[in-house]
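User: Show me a protein chain along with its predicted structure.
Assistant: Here is one chain, sequence first, then structure tokens.
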Amino acid sequence: MLVIKEYRHGGGVIAPGLPGGGIEAGEEPATAAERELLEETGYRPSQLLAVGSAYANWGNQDNLVHYFVALGCARVGEQLLDVNEEIEVRLERVEDILQPGFFKQSFHLVNILLALPHLQLSNGQQPGPDAE
């Protein structure tokens, strides 16, 4: 699984996370997801699945977070980072990212939860009660 590691200003930490970003004016969420994946990692998916949307904090914000699973990713070029971005791209085993505490950001945790039916463990099984 592609995981990025970068400095998170709000938490003051360098932490693992998932690629993501904002939607530009007039852009569809899926288009933004694929663009952000390419910019942050240099990878492009063969298939992009929409797995849900949720309000970031509907108590005082009106923005939706759109969640996707990018399957069959292949490296097609270099990262296209902004001047102040430093993002390390890592390949991690699904088993490792499912460990408690690996991700500490709620958006990333929700994305993993929604992605679980589409993920595969290194032994070829899907995560769940039947997985070894």
